[in-house]
Design a protein that fits this description.
It is a single chain. The chain is α/β, with parallel strands linked by helices. The protein folds into two domains: about 5-170, VC0802-like; about 180-390, Rossmann fold, CATH 3.40.50.620. Helices cover about 40% and strands about 25% of the residues. It is built from 13 helices and 15 strands. The strands form two sheets. Strands 1, 2, 3, 4, 5, 6, 7, 8 and 9 form a nine-stranded mixed beta sheet that branches. Strands 14-13-10-11-12-15 form a six-stranded mixed beta sheet, sandwiched between helices. Helix 5 (about 190-200) links the parallel strand 10 and strand 11 (about 205-210). Bound molecules: adenosine-5'-triphosphate and magnesium ion. Magnesium ion binds near residues 188 and 344.
Length: about 400
């Protein structure tokens, strides 16, 4: 019997007239993610995306794994198709659930019938199938409240599908339906989480990383690229920009008051990031900042960085505790990479006593001791880019 995967749409179903666009984007994303695994028929009906493998030898575990990371889907399950008659359905149930029914004590059959022309109602289908199961496994008993095994039978237009309870999908809305933004991606825990949170709300991501060789190593950069690669399992392909930031950091150190190093550096990062964004049609910036986490992430500090921004800056981790951010990064699979101990350019020249309540005019004055205009233009000019993630 052929196995297929059913993916239930999430919020897309609420999209009214725009729904078609959302569905197209979802299909496109799913097609891209599954392409390396073989050929598939992807079809959408009744708020469900059907993934049918074409040909043998397709690794359905991997298909399921990839589909569970596509934003826009709330639930998914592996199902087996059957002819729309009770005997064929029962046959599939025995084949698929035989082992578990053999050793279980209780079960229930749950039927959903979207094909209203089918000759039995949902409760009738459940009763018939339940009867057949009891005939074969007489020691079993029906338990509607707390069954050990739940068999779900869906009677749909195109056939009957049998599966067990669905598992949670990635949720959110399809990447590509909410515009494009540039994520400031460090090697830390927070920024990959921030990027994925925005991708979950439909944003197509590019990423920008500031490196400061020789203070930061080639291997530190490779770590960040691996983070982007990991993120792409959820976010899709990421255009990755690397900015040479050494000269700027050295001039900050040589010319500006120490307590403002980090703030000035962050303002210059924002300036460069938005120039890259403007050049490449990206509408907003994203950072991994969380309110009060460190000196440069107080509200007053953010006021001084936002003062140089001409586009929206999204900080989806702003209200999360570190623990909550870590939990998300575990789920995404970025945590283990993030905690690899490599240096970040932020930590190269850290002030001993950073200002936690900086005043904008003081930061502006501190920054004005050196004219960074030319170095900013040079950094933008020398920024390299590459695509990360094959899908
Ligand atoms: P993260 O865990 O994301 O590194 P953090 O808590 O360590 O965050 P900071 O190091 O102060 O905080 O950085 C704040 C934000 O600035 C990061 O979340 C990221 O968006 C951005 N950022 C910091 N360093 C870099 C870098 N080298 N390249 C690009 N963006 C950076
Ligand atoms: Mg960091």
């Amino acid at each position: 019997m052929k196995e297929i995967i059913l993916c239930k749409y999430g919020e897309i179903v609420l999209k009214g007239l725009n729904r078609g666009g959302f569905e197209n984007e979802l299909m496109k994303n799913m097609r891209r993610r599954l392409k390396p695994l073989g050929k598939f028929d992807l079809r959408s009906a009744q708020s469900t995306l059907y993934i049918t493998p074409l040909g043998d030898g397709i690794d359905m575990d991997e298909v399921f794994e990839r589909a569970s990371k596509v934003f826009g889907i709330t639930k998914l399950c592996r199902a087996i198709g059957a002819e729309k008659d009770i005997d064929s359905i029962a046959g599939v149930i025995f084949e698929r659930f035989g082992d578990v029914l053999e050793s279980a004590k209780s079960f229930k059959v749950m039927t959903r019938r979207s094909d209203k022309s089918f000759y039995l109602t949902s409760p009738e289908v459940s009763a018939e199938l339940g009867g057949k199961i009891l005939e074969r496994y007489p020691r079993l008993r029906v338990d509607l409240d707390n069954p050990e095994v739940t068999v779900v039978c869906e009677i749909r237009g195109e056939g009957a599908f049998i599966h067990d309870t669905a598992v949670d999908g990635a949720g959110g809305i399809p990447v590509g339906t909410s515009g494009k933004a540039l994520l400031l991606l460090s090697g830390g825990i927070d920024s990959p989480v921030a990027g994925c949170m925005m991708a979950k709300r439909g944003v197509e991501l590019s990423a920008i990383h500031f490196e400061a060789p020789p203070y930061t190593s080639e291997r530190a950069l490779m770590k960040v690229e691996r983070l982007a690669e990991k993120m792409s399992e959820y976010c899709g392909r990421i255009c990755f920009y690397t900015v040479p930031f050494t000269k700027i950091q050295e001039e900050i150190r040589n010319n500006c008051p120490e307590e403002y190093f980090t703030l000035i550096m962050r303002r210059l990062m924002m300036e460069i990031a938005q120039q890259i964004a403007e050049k490449n049609g990206l509408q907003a910036l994203i950072t991994g900042e969380s309110l009060g986490q460190v000196a440069s992430q107080t509200m007053a500090a953010m006021v001084t960085t936002d003062a140089v921004c001409r586009m929206p800056v999204f900080r989806p981790c702003i209200g999360l505790d570190k623990k909550e951010i870590i939990d998300i990064s575990y789920k995404l699979g970025t945590f283990d990479i993030s905690i690899e101990p490599y240096e970040d350019c932020c930590t190269v020249f850290t002030p001993r006593h950073p200002r936690t309540k900086p005043k904008l005019e003081d930061v502006e004055r501190a920054q004005s001791y050196y004219d960074f205009g030319e170095l900013i233009a040079e950094a933008v000019e020398n920024t390299r880019s590459k695509m990360i993630g094959g899908y």
